[in-house]
Design a protein that fits this description.
Layout: E1 3-8, E2 13-17, E3 21-23, E4 27-29, E5 35-38, E6 41-47, H1 49-58, H2 60-65, H3 70-88, E7 100-108, E8 115-122, E9 130-131, E10 137-140, H4 143-152, H5 159-174, E11 185-189, E12 196-197, H6 200-222
Antiparallel strand pairs: 1-2, 1-10, 2-11, 3-4, 5-6, 6-7, 7-8, 8-9, 11-12
Length: 232
């Protein structure tokens, strides 16, 4: 399975993923690539990875040709991916088709300046685009992200904190669910610039920060003094 997270930060958009892919019931690989740079856009695969990779590869050139416009790419995913997906799995009952999805993030030009946008697409909804609004968007095993992100995420969050929060959610999920794990990958895109993956040094600093953060939470809890309720 997978966990993909995309969130808008103050001056950039952050997308992160785990690296685990299952091979059978208990075997797995922990260095799977699930995020891709599409010139000035980022795209992530969640769900059944082999089908997602096939769709992305099959339409990669078309996506590159339209990568100057996130809305044109969203329209292409909606129309072309759904057709290829249904044609490739022709004969499979609706309930038997593997679930696959994508998250697409980037900027669009606007009269007031560049506008951040994040779309998600799911095979269950025939790859119809869904807009994230001002909240983080998740693909895959998202229940822990839905619980954690409202506690910490703010629409004007800094890029550094957005990277930390994305990695924190993936790490906390992997500690609780075997289907998520492996190397965390984080991509960032700024207005007018290509999407880039953060380097291993920055990632190591974030992961060390997560360890210290969790240690501080435990210490805070252990030092917590709770006064008894007054008797009435």
């Amino acid at each position: 399975m997978t966990l993909i997270i995309a969130m808008k930060a103050r001056d950039s958009i952050i997308m992160a993923s785990d690296g685990r892919v299952l091979m059978g019931n208990s075997n797995y690989r922990d260095n799977e690539t699930k995020l891709f740079c599409l010139k000035n856009l980022m795209v992530g695969i969640f769900g059944y990875g082999e089908i997602g990779a096939f769709l992305l590869q099959h339409h990669w050139k078309e996506l590159l040709d339209k990568s100057d416009s996130i809305d044109d790419c969203a329209e292409l995913i909606n129309k072309k991916f759904s057709k290829t997906y249904n044609t490739s799995l022709n004969g499979s009952a609706a309930g038997e088709k593997p679930i696959v999805g994508f998250i697409l993030a980037g900027y669009r030009g606007g009269k007031a300046g560049p506008e951040q946008e994040i779309y998600s697409f799911r095979s269950k909804s025939n790859f119809s685009p869904e807009i994230s609004g001002n909240e983080p968007i998740f693909g895959g095993i998202a229940q822990y992200g839905w619980y954690i992100s409202p506690k910490f995420y703010l629409p004007n969050i800094s890029a550094a904190k957005a990277k930390f929060l994305s990695a924190y959610i993936i790490k906390e999920t992997s500690d609780r669910d075997f289907l998520v794990g492996g190397k965390i990958n984080i991509f960032e895109i700024i207005a007018g610039g290509p999407a880039k993956q953060i380097n291993d040094t920055e990632l190591a600093t974030i992961l060390m920060g997560i360890e210290l953060f969790n240690r501080d939470i435990i210490q805070l809890f252990n030092n917590l003094k709770i006064s008894p309720m007054p008797q009435t």
